[in-house]
Design a protein that fits this description.
With 615 residues, this protein is an alpha+beta fold. It is built from 16 helices and 23 strands. The chain has a 4-stranded antiparallel sheet with strand order 2-3-1-4. Strands 11-12-6-22 form a 4-stranded antiparallel sheet. α6 packs across α8, α13 packs across α14 and α15 runs antiparallel to α16. InterPro entries: SecD, SecD-TM, SecD/SecF_arch_bac, SecD/SecF_CS, SecD_1st, SecD_SecF_C, SecD_SecF_C_bact, SecDF_P1_head. It is found in: Cell membrane.
Length: 615
């Protein structure tokens, strides 16, 4: 045993010191963007994917702002949207009004906040933490899904499926009526009724069938099973959530929260959005896709253009790069967006831009039959928003299309094909919704929450550092430096992983700091015990860290398990707390043991003679 100190006992190898140095530098770089804050901005995007936001729009916006004597701090294009920064909220509000009036209804103009991260940090992927609604401000909506309407739409599909099935089996049926709670089929005799029932049972297993045959009146009544109705209602809520995710992206929000609450409600939280009316407008822009047949009769089209639309038809506009043109469609809906699994831009056999659609099994069967019966005719893809339809494309059917893969071709560019695919993928609302609760948290309140939360955290940090330095002297200094490194590591991880930070998350950071310093208290007390027992200083340092490690590991693992349980079984703010808590445990173990040991090694490990420890 060394009696005068062991010089090589408490030295990390060079590679380990370099790893620690690299971790500290990387942590500082990726935590630094949070220092620069955010700037009020106005975001301009198209109401549809086909509406371009390019340099021409940016030049137009810059000129109108100059004419209105509004000076922006910068403007840039990103993801088919224009973002313009301003020095304050007053200029932001004036600019938003001026831009909206000048651009019209084809563009969405929304108030937003943009990070002030320097370019050199942005190049390495450094970005600030995503702040939650309580810290950044924004809007909160609680939306009620009309699940009864989802069941009604399911009955409409049943009526269409029955009509196609009986036609395919060459069974002559009378009227097929959609009733309030089911579908009624009128049949001519008992044999036809039996044959129809057999065909329906085979093709629609989720339907309950009741028959009536009194006094020559032969009818089949179809209703969905209770289990199927519950499935339809549940799927409607899930589909609405997916559609909302696609639509709120137009607002450019960071980490929007869209989640189910209860059986038929959806919570939508949009941090950073200051314009409630615009947010409601975007959320309401959930579209429905319909496949309908085009009426080629020129006489009927002329009659419709004259203002007399024939019964059973609807006059819409077809999107065209050269200018929208009128098109007459039948009102019967052959297929809806619910049967589309995916849509991707592609190229046809002539290497011309096209869109490839993937249908589910039911949609594939419907489309095969539809195309087989209408070769040479035009079929329209209609996007319906706010009860207003617009034809995305209307190709000619060249032949029967089976297999569930559909290729849409026409006079479109590569950009048009990409936009059409985006529109088709966006999906449709499975059921209508209404806002039952609405709250707005202004940026000033969010800023106040941030200041109070971080002030309380830093005051606590300062009090801990003061105590550690007074009580443990030099070892208290190393513990405080390690605690600061822990805070940097945690903020860097939250920024890199885009974890949304809320007020409970700030509480979790404060708890993490307390747990981290607790580990150093255990280490320092162990070193004290070794010194009091007469162990040489270098050996006391080594023994203190080794003996405290088991206790530190046990306590952190049990706390980590509690955090994982909170994440799995919790929701909303509880899960946010759990994420920060678990990340904090990982960073605290590294900083309290590895970083603090490296600092102690630098102070004591290179001395030839150590007679006492400042602990």
């Amino acid at each position: 045993m060394c009696r005068t100190g062991c010089p090589a006992m408490n030295r990390y190898p060079l590679w380990k010191n370099l790893i620690i140095l690299f971790a500290l530098v990387a942590g500082l770089i990726y935590a630094l963007p949070n220092r620069y804050g955010e700037t009020p901005a106005v975001q301009v995007s198209g109401t549809r994917s086909s509406v371009k936001v390019d340099t021409a729009v940016m030049d137009r916006v810059e000129k109108l702002l100059q004419a209105a004597n509004i000076q922006p701090e910068g403007a840039f294009l990103e993801n088919n949207s224009l973002k313009v920064k301003f020095a304050g909220t007053e200029a932001q509000l004036k600019a938003k009004t001026a831009i909206q009036e000048a651009l019209g209804d084809n563009y969405v103009v929304a108030l937003n906040l943009q990070p002030n991260t320097p370019g050199w940090l942005a190049k390495v992927g450094a970005k600030p933490m995503a702040l939650g609604l309580d810290l950044r401000g924004g809007v909160h909506f609680l939306m009620q899904v009309d699940t009864r309407a989802a069941v009604d739409k399911a009955y409409e599909r049943v009526a269409g499926d029955v009509r196609r099935e009986l036609k395919d089996k060459k069974i002559r049926a009378g009227s097929i009526k959609r009733l309030v709670s089911g579908v009624e089929i009128q049949l001519r005799d008992e044999a036809t009724m039996a044959e129809s029932r057999k065909a329906i049972e085979r093709s629609l297993p989720t339907v309950q069938i009741a028959q009536q045959s009194a006094e020559g009146n032969y009818r089949l009544m179809l209703t969905l099973t209770d289990e199927e109705q519950r499935r339809v209602q549940s799927d409607a809520v899930k589909q609405n959530i997916a559609t909302l995710h696609n639509r709120v992206n137009e607002l450019g929000t960071t980490e929007p929260v869209i989640q189910q609450q209860g059986a038929d409600r959806i919570v939508v939280q949009l941090p950073g959005v200051q314009d409630t009316a615009r947010a409601k407008d975007i959320i309401g822009r959930t579209a429905t896709l319909e496949v309908r047949m085009v009426e080629e009769d020129a006489a009927k089209l002329s009659e419709a253009l004259a203002g007399k639309v024939p019964a059973g038809y609807e006059l819409l506009e077809e999107l065209d790069p050269r200018g929208n043109r009128p098109i007459l469609l039948k009102t019967d809906v052959e297929l809806t967006g619910e049967n589309i699994n995916g849509a991707q831009p592609s190229f046809d056999e002539q290497n011309q831009p096209s869109v490839e659609i993937t249908l589910d099994s039911a949609g594939a069967n419907i489309f095969r039959q539809l195309t087989a019966e209408n070769i040479g005719k035009r079929m329209a893809m209609v996007l319906v928003e706010k009860n207003k339809g617009q034809v995305v494309t209307a190709p000619v059917i060249r032949g029967e299309i089976g297999g569930g893969r559909v290729q849409i071709t026409g006079s479109m560019t590569t950009a048009d094909a990409t936009d059409t695919a985006l529109l088709l993928r966006a999906g449709s609302l499975a059921a209508p919704m209404e806002v039952v609760e609405e709250r707005t948290i202004g940026p000033s309140l969010g800023k106040e929450n941030i200041e109070k939360g971080f002030n309380s955290m830093f005051y606590g940090f300062g009090a801990v550092v003061l105590f550690m330095v007074i009580y443990y002297r030099m070892f208290g200094v190393t513990a405080s430096l390690a605690l600061g490194a822990n805070l940097v590591f945690l903020i860097a991880l939250l920024s890199v992983w885009s974890t949304t930070l809320t007020l409970p998350g700030i509480a979790a950071i404060a708890l993490t700091l307390g747990m981290a310093i607790d580990s150093n208290v255990l280490i320092n007390e162990r070193i004290r015990e070794e010194v009091r027992a007469g162990v040489p200083p270098q050996t006391a340092i080594k023994a203190g860290y080794e003996h405290a490690w088991a206790t530190i590991l046990d306590s952190n693992i049990t706390t980590f398990i509690a955090g994982v349980a909170l994440f799995i079984f919790g929701s909303g703010a509880v899960r946010g707390f759990a994420v920060v808590h678990c990340l904090g445990i990982i960073t605290s173990m590294f900083s309290a043991v590895v970083v603090s040991r490296a600092l102690v090694n630098l102070i004591y490990g290179y001395r030839r003679k150590v007679t006492s420890l400042a602990v």
